[in-house]
Design goal:
It contains ten helices and nine strands. Strand 2, helix 2 and strand 3 form a beta-alpha-beta unit. The chain is an alpha/beta fold and about 280 residues long. The protein folds into two domains: about 110 residues, 3-Layer(aba) Sandwich (Oxidized Rhodanese, domain 1); about 120 residues, Rhodanese-like domain (Oxidized Rhodanese, domain 1), CATH 3.40.250. This is Sulfurtransferase.
Length: about 280
């Protein structure tokens, strides 16, 4: 019934709340979720999808526990939303797809659009569901690329830098919302084209239409081997979604190490040219 629904409207969600598992992916969960969330939405911190002892993603065992504690089953349709222009919803979508949960959707426009349209919210504490027995698969990382492969085949890829113009140009090493998390180097990976992730979204934080996305990415070929990156992977996941899920590009991968890794590595090539800016 719900299989392969990937981007749902606030109207659709409001009419189907009882049939789906709504998950708010929290970046500042102690602030935003408790101020107001979509009725029935469970809260999962985005860091719960990461490994506890290394900069990597959670093991299938940990992920199974996280989703099971949230009352999610393997066949549930999960509808994701987050703060910060929905970026962490897209990021977790990319992660969960790798772990084999194909029945996924993103709330188009997120909590901003939900509130803008006047739909109800809850603010009376955290939602607790009955625990389930979720079983995550071993992840398929075919849509991921690590820095070692990237550097060894740099000229084979079409690189898309999803950060802001200021970050791409080398004027800053972190966006304003993460101003304390600077890297040693500024700039961008050589050859990367700057397509800031925000141009993929409308003013109400919904994703632009297929026609508009096709225009933005009209310079790409379906045969291109595409790598998207940003600072930590969250903003780039919006570009990955637009390219992979909306436009149907098959050879698109996300470099989740992104600039927080690349900008701190010794001896890697860096550019600060503005000539490739979109």
């Amino acid at each position: 019934m719900f299989f392969h629904i990937m981007l749902v409207s606030v109207e659709w969600l409001n009419n189907n709340l009882k049939d789906v598992k709504v998950v708010e992916i929290g970046y500042n969960p102690q602030i935003n979720y408790y101020e107001g969330h979509i009725p029935g939405a469970v809260l999962i911190n985005w860091r719960d999808f990461l490994d506890d002892n290394s900069r990597d993603f959670a093991s299938p065992g940990k992920l199974s526990k996280v989703l099971g504690n949230a009352g999610i089953n393997n066949d549930d349709l999960i509808v994701l939303y987050s703060e910060m222009n929905n970026r962490y919803a897209f990021y977790v979508y990319w992660i969960l797809k790798a772990y084999g949960h194909s029945n996924l959707a993103i709330l188009n426009g997120g909590i901003y659009k939900w509130l803008k349209e006047g739909y109800p919210i809850e603010s009376d504490g955290i939602v607790v569901n009955k625990k389930s027995e979720y079983k995550a698969r071993k992840p398929d990382w075919s849509s991921r690329i690590l820095v070692w492969e990237l550097l060894s085949k740099l000229k084979e890829f079409v690189l898309i830098d999803s950060r802001s113009k200021e970050e791409y140009d080398g004027l800053t090493t972190a966006p304003p919302e993460h101003k304390c998390e600077q890297t040693q180097m500024s700039g961008h990976i050589p050859g990367a084209k700057n397509i800031p992730w925000t141009i993929l979204l409308n003013e109400d934080e919904t994703m632009k239409s297929r026609d508009e996305l096709e225009r933005i990415f009209s310079w790409l070929s379906k045969e291109d081997k595409i790598v998207v990156y940003c600072r930590t992977g969250a903003r780039a996941s919006v570009a990955w979604y637009a390219l992979k899920e909306v436009l149907g590009f098959k050879l698109v991968r996300l470099y989740d190490g992104s600039w927080v890794e690349y900008g701190n590595m010794v001896g890697v090539p860096v550019e600060k040219s503005v000539s490739d800016r979109f």
